[in-house]
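Why this split exists: single-chain examples teach little about how molecules sit against one another. For that reason, every record in the complexes split bundles all components of an assembly together and asks for one structure covering all of them. Below is a record exactly as it appears in the raw files.
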Amino acid sequence: MPRETIYEAKIEYLQILDEDGNLDKKLAKGSLSDEQVLELYEQMWIYRQFDEIAFKLQRSGRMGTYPQNKGQEANAAGSALAMVRGTDWVVPSYRENLAMHMHGMPYHHILMHWMGDERGNMIPDGVKMLPLSVPIGTHMLHAAGIGWAMKIRGEEAAAITYFGDGATSEGDFHGAMNFASVMQAPVIFFCQNNHWAISVPTDQQMNSQTVAQKALAYDMPTIRVDGNDIFAVYLAVKEARERAVSGGGPSFIEGLTYRLGDHTTADDARRYRDADEVEAWAEKDPLIRTRKYLVSKDLWDDEKQELLGERATKIVGEIVKAAEGVREPATAEFFDSMFAELPRDLAEQRDSMRTSSIGINPGQVGLSAQPERV
Amino acid sequence: MMTTAYTPDMSLITDDVHPALGHWELPHFAEEHELPPRDGAPGQERVIQFREALREAMSEEMRRDQRIFLCGEEVAQYNGAYKVSQGMLEEFGEKRIIDTPISENGFAGMAIGAAMMGLKPIVEFMSWSFSLVAADPILNNAPKMLYMSGGQWGCPIVFRGNDGAGGQLGSTHSWCVEGLYANIPGLKMVIPSNPYDAKGLLKTAIRDPDPVFFLESERMLGDRAHVPAEEYYIPFGRARRVREGDACTLVSWGRPVNFCIEACEKLAENGIECDLLDMRTIRPLDIDSIVASLKKTGRVVVVDQSWPFGSVASETITQICEHGFDWLDSAPVRVNTRDVPTPYARGLEHAYLPNAERVVEAVLRIVEV
């Protein structure tokens, strides 16, 4: 009778660009070109400005709640570039705005969403994306369904879905992973492990050494990468995508990063987070290390930085103007998007703005003569 | 490479477009009298089971449209836990008749993703009782998707399965979900009472661009009746007058319609003729037909196999009061299940459900004999 090990697994960790901006050239093979690094740096930097302005809009009462993405830009940028815009599907949560933007979602839509306008969720023609999803984990199943539909339709494409470390405690996560695995759907599960689910740290969320190992149960290729390193993120997603579109099924990527801001503007993380921890992670900021790398390669200097700053201010100004310039939705409009064709009872509610009984039957409250009996 | 300056395209914030409408061609809806006859010509009847009528509806639509697929537990190899999908795997193959892992939350959520990607899923819940673990996708995602995307993303999907007491299945497996789910805006709810309607309504549900909850009953799947071989579509929101009378209006849907027919026959023996309306869909609800009947009878009994508090019967009676108060000669009466979990014991389950005796009793209470 045997008693032996029948399954063993290892979790790979990948870092190509360290926090001081040093690049491992060997590992960087197949990753980003200088041109791409420049593009991603600019995208991340402009996004950071957008994020700061969004925060200020909330503080000045011009926007509702907003979850800052600050510190997690490399996960969004590196993964978005590795996916093919207009072909692949992006199924976002709410901390990868930059990935949404890079795949065609206008920034002012994102602001409109958080300002409380459903029209901010409208996706422009040709953009392959679902509206951002605030419930935790439910959208991962939609991504599995999209991947499955791609397979049925014979499309050469993949879907990427984003979620946090906390979301992996949800049943939806396991359902989506299992379905994608069983159906071998072309889906990339991208976990933004930012160490905190509001006030609950990852080690209280799970008793697993890595999030990446959860994919082992579904026999899914899995890896943990330095999520503040655009080279590592890009390469891991690129490999996962190649696998997905060539029939290799789903993959899992854990991008280890840190939420530099609060959970949302309704939160104050200082109450539960150690300032030293935040400070240590601030030094690992993806923007800082990417800039160091570019400077070391003579691709960047202070003058360029200044120009970028000016451009960013102008761009973000335009975005805010666009979001605030949209006409207010009219009250009756909330009936318009209920069904493909508005049913009569809803049309009546829209036209009368009435859901109470009073006045439906005038005779009932003596508003007019009693109708004739039949 | 320099990032181009941001130029917002304001034309994106325009009138809403429902993508599903572009893709989903609606069928022609006939008036009631234009539908094929409910009774076959003598000797020419085509009597099939309720489950076969459902299968026929799905198969006809699947032959027409490659985007439609059926998924759920045991629907493929096993031919469906209740044999509704018998033979469908053989005809349509495993890409379109899909045995899923046991996770209602999983396959309901995944089907929603597939719907948004341009497919038309039919999701079978072995029992609607099991849909409770899929509450988030079916209640929080599917019916709200269009609204939450500013009118852009429809969710053309059919959820179907057995609803109500199936015969000594105990309280956790005997749910009538209509009382809970009908409360949600953005969904349509269909509850057929007979094989003929089951086929015509399910075909309409599959062609519908919005999420449709289709509630069947395990106790009716073996019911047999003439069902035309031809294709027909029964529009939503139109009740059917099952029996004509002027003593009292009886309003029901789904399995209890059959109890009402039985009750009507007993009442007729005593000279009491009731107007019996089968609502077929409760979202939308054909309140006009109820009020039209009420104008003739002045009395109404609503029969509903879900719990009384906040039930579809409650809503129906509220609407009756709103739209037809002046024609009421007595307070409206409802017959619901008893307000307890569905009992396991046979005798208790019978006493718990609406039945012909309880309907007769309710009618007699308000009809002047």
